[in-house]
Design goal:
The structure holds 2 protein chains of 2 kinds. Chain A is 42% helix and 11% strand. Chain A is built from 22 helices and 13 strands. In chain B, helix 15 packs antiparallel against helix 16. The chains are: A alpha/beta, B mainly alpha. Chain B: It is found in: Cell membrane. Chain B: InterPro entries: MetI-like, MetI-like_sf, UgpAE/MalFG_permease.
Chain lengths: 520, 337
């Protein structure tokens, strides 16, 4: 039965493959090899061998992946939803030949050295020229994916492009109130206050919500407007790196001053009163109800709200540069991280390790990378002047990201190198204008903390201290903003309490791990 | 089964009576080990249908309650999912030391006990009072309608309950703050104020469960002998006196049993509702053992630590339920066992 299915899909695959692909130079094995795969993601809970992209990859390489996903779920919460499936898979006692997932790094770096996953350093060197060539140009990223024993255990998903989130404001409101786009934090405050008091939506009520956020940690990010730091990477509340030194934003004095100012803003009503409970629908609700004034959010998705101009007269929600801090510094703390903790790894029971690493390498070849980014030529895109260009009917199908998932492209449970060109083709003019604006300021972005891998002893210290420390920091953070306590008065006691909970010890552990990993 | 006289568990009634009297007679004779075995075998042969009916429950207990106990050992091990429970090294009481050296865990234990105490104080009497009130309602249609309305919240998922609560207590559009606004009160952002968490949580629990919980007590009230009320009426008692002198004393054993079960669950605050309603700003009063375990143990994959906390919970609950049962048996002669 299975053989029949293979034959059928091979036939189907060859029918849609262009002749240029048919010369077989990407073929890994003459005899088709079957490998099992675990792949769980909120947008595609299991691996689907019918994905057009997979059919082409199978035809080109001779490697046939078969879904063997355990614990598939579609939960999107940062931690549990993603690693739960991996933990269930491990608890079930057997590991498929290939394991692809988001948030896989800490998982493979813990269980790889215990023997659950195949170490990849030698395999890459001998059998994966494309991956090796990439790492030769980016030794920092190679360092970032390694476990504490110096081995790589997974091939990462590597995002492309620079900007993730930016500052957004209702420019039509600015115009209605005869205000300029704010350039400093002081001007920003005045603009938000004007939104609150001068009724820019013109309904006679002071119901405007000057600053709002879909994820409340984005509110905390505003401390960068007072030279503080909040999130050191695209993971909220993460450690940060500055000149080779590990630190945490929530123990800095800029953060303290920032929180004091945010508490003042909150009390004055410049920040959404329900910022901590409104949740992910905040942007949708507040913009479509003509209530929200400004936020900090993704370029691509936020720019899309300008379609509301058909319902709300004059509606314009545009990006503006991060306002300068009192010391005159502008930074955009969020960026597209260089390497995600997502990707795929080889399970220890895999009997075709060499073929598997060659298969991983296929996705870093020119043809493989295009396949992973754009889908199948002739179906999703056409080659125009040597560049892949999405077909118009494909772009018109709805959200492009979702359409790509549905054909098996842009899967972050696969290790591949993203090509930003894919996204530029469907970003709207507001997003592109915003990105162009941010590009005029070359020093806007700061380096991300790419994470560290611990030895078991370091891991034990991290496990013992970090959870409690994070809880305590968040508890105090929200309390100060909501007016339960004054950050200026409480600061010394707060720092002392953190030290008692092991903050200094934790920083030393992080620094040791960092120095080992990045050769500091 | 149509012939009522013929069957008790598949055995003719006369035979059962004969067997029983024989058993009593045999009991008085000197026993030999052999006869005990024979009698046990006979017993199973005769009553096998009853044991067959018991079997699914036994299997359920074995698979879902006894087999997992094997995994409790990971509370004393440096557990790795890959190595498995058997392959991980023993580390003694290290996880328990970690727990009791953690201020947040201690706070979570205190919060759990406090919330449970409020639940007991306000949440336990609520269904009893409700049942007594329903019992006094004479209009049948009105009674049925009211009962259906108070049962309903029990069948709504916690996620939706939490959504309703968050909306109702919202500082801008919430019904509570709107009503407060009519009286000129300033809006309160209830769900971020530590002092408001427990009243809201306990109140939500009562709203959700009091109606459904009253069913047990209504059943107990229905079982009270009507002749007691008839003679009370003859003696000239009013409804209030009948409630205090007849209804409540009659359902007291049920109340005590329910109380013992409730005490056994003191450490089990319905944590999914806590997770849905709490915020870092309210951890101070809202963080209970199970939510702490969820954040520290499961989110960061420390199953061994989570197992230690779970074991601690179980030991406390076991002690409490034993104590409550003993006290109840001593003072009221009502007990679970």
């Amino acid at each position: 039965m299975r053989k029949l299915t293979i034959a059928a899909t091979l036939l189907a695959g060859s029918a849609i493959t262009t002749p240029a692909f048919a010369d077989g130079h990407l073929r890994i094995s003459e005899e088709p090899i079957e490998l099992t795969i675990q792949m769980n993601h909120r947008a595609y809970p299991i691996y689907d061998e019918e994905w057009p992209v997979e059919q082409v990859a199978r035809e080109l390489t001779g490697i046939h992946l078969i879904n063997d996903t355990v614990g598939a779920n579609m939960r999107s919460d940062e931690n549990t939803g993603r690693t739960e499936a991996l933990n269930l898979m491990l608890a079930s006692g057997s590991i498929p030949d290939i394991v692809g997932s988001s948030r896989i790094r800490d998982f493979v770096n813990q269980f790889g050295p215990e023997g659950a996953f195949v170490p990849l350093n030698d395999l890459i060197e001998e059998h994966a020229p494309n991956i090796a060539a990439y790492y030769a140009t980016r030794p920092d990223i190679e360092a970032a994916v390694k476990a504490s024993d110096g081995q790589m255990y997974y091939i990462p998903y590597l995002p492309d492009g620079k900007y993730g989130r930016g500052y957004w404001i209702r420019t039509d409101w600015l115009e209605a109130l005869d205000l300029e786009v704010p350039q400093t934090v002081e001007e920003y405050e005045n603009v938000l206050r004007a939104f609150k008091t001068q009724d820019p939506n013109g309904n006679g009520l002071a119901d405007e919500v000057p600053f709002f956020a879909r994820q409340w940690p984005e509110l905390i990010r505003l401390v960068t407007l007072w030279d503080g730091r909040a999130h050191g990477s695209d993971t909220y509340h993460d450690f940060l790196i500055e000149d080779g030194k590990i630190d945490h934003g929530y123990i800095g004095e800029g953060y303290r001053d920032g929180i004091a100012n945010l508490a003042r803003w909150y009390e004055e009503g410049l920040i959404d009163a329900e910022v901590f409970t409104r949740g992910s629908s905040a942007r949708d609700f507040l913009l479509s109800e003509n209530l929200g004034g400004s936020t900090h959010d993704w370029f691509a998705s936020t720019s899309g709200y300008n379609r509301l101009s058909s319902e709300i007269d004059g509606f314009a929600f545009e990006a503006f540069l991060p306002p300068a801090s009192p010391s005159g510094r502008r930074i955009e703390e969020h960026r597209r991280i260089l390497v995600k903790p997502d990707g795929w790894a080889i399970g220890f029971e895999n009997e075709h390790v060499v073929e598997t690493i060659k298969y991983f390498d296929f996705w870093f070849s020119e043809e493989g990378r295009r396949l992973a980014n754009f889908g199948v030529e002739g179906q999703q895109y056409d080659m125009v002047d040597g560049e892949p260009i999405f077909k118009q009917e494909f772009l018109d199908q709805g959200p492009v990201n979702r359409s790509l998932y549905q054909v098996g492209a842009q899967l972050q449970g696969r290790g591949y190198f993203q090509d930003y060109a894919y996204e530029a083709q469907w970003s709207n003019e507001f997003a592109l204008e915003g990105i162009a604006l941010y590009d005029t300021m070359p020093d806007l972005l700061i380096p991300d903390f790419l994470g560290v891998a611990f030895t078991p002893e370091e891991q034990a210290i991290y496990d013992r201290t970090w959870g409690s420390i994070r809880d305590y920091m968040l508890e105090r953070q929200q309390g100060w903003i909501l007016g339960n306590g004054d950050v200026m008065e409480d600061w010394d006691a707060y720092i002392a309490q953190l030290d008692e909970m092991g903050m200094q010890e934790l920083l030393v552990v992080m620094q040791t791990a960092y120095d080992r990993q990045y050769g500091g | 089964m149509s012939d009522r006289n013929s069957d008790v568990g598949g055995i003719p009634i006369e035979e059962v009576v004969v067997e029983a009297s024989e058993a009593v007679r045999k009991d008085k004779q000197t026993r030999t080990p052999d006869s005990t075995w024979v009698r046990t075998f006979d017993h199973f042969r005769r009553e096998w249908q009853i044991y067959a009916m018991l079997l699914p429950t036994i299997i359920w207990f074995l698979v879902f309650l006894y087999k997992p106990m094997y995994g409790l050992q990971i509370a004393f091990k440096d557990y790795s999912i890959f190595r498995g429970a058997a392959g991980s090294p023993w580390i003694g009481f290290e996880h328990f030391e970690t727990l009791f050296n953690n201020d947040q865990f201690i706070r979570a234990v205190k919060n759990t006990i406090t919330i449970s105490f409020y639940n007991l104080l306000f949440g336990f009497p609520a269904p009893i009072i409700l049942a007594l009130m329903f019992n006094e309602v004479l209009h049948a249609t009105y009674k049925r309608t009211a009962q259906t309305i108070v049962y309903l919240p029990h069948f709504i998922s916690s996620v939706i309950i939490a959504g309703i609560v968050i909306t109702a207590f919202s500082p801008t559009v919430g019904v509570i703050n709107t009503i407060m606004g009519w009286f000129g009160l300033d809006p309160i952002y209830f769900l971020t104020q530590p002092e408001w968490f427990r009243p809201i949580f306990v109140g939500t629990g009562i709203w959700q469960e009091a109606g459904f919980g009253s069913i047990v007590f209504l059943a107990a009230i229905a079982g009270v002998n009507p002749s007691l009320y008839e003679s009370a009426v003859v003696d000239g008692a009013n409804r209030w006196q009948m409630m205090w002198k007849i209804t409540i004393p009659s359902i007291l054993p049920t109340i005590l049993i329910m109380l013992i079960i409730r005490i056994g669950n003191v450490m089990e605050v319905s944590f999914e509702l806590v997770i849905l309603l709490y915020q870092p700003a309210t951890y101070e009063t809202a963080d209970v053992v199970n939510t702490w375990v969820y954040r520290q143990g499961l989110q960061s994959g420390q199953y061994d630590l989570a197992a230690a906390a779970g074991l601690f919970n179980a030991v406390v609950a076991f002690t409490l339920v034993m104590t409550a049962n003993t006290l109840s048996r001593r003072f009221s002669r009502t007990s679970l066992w």
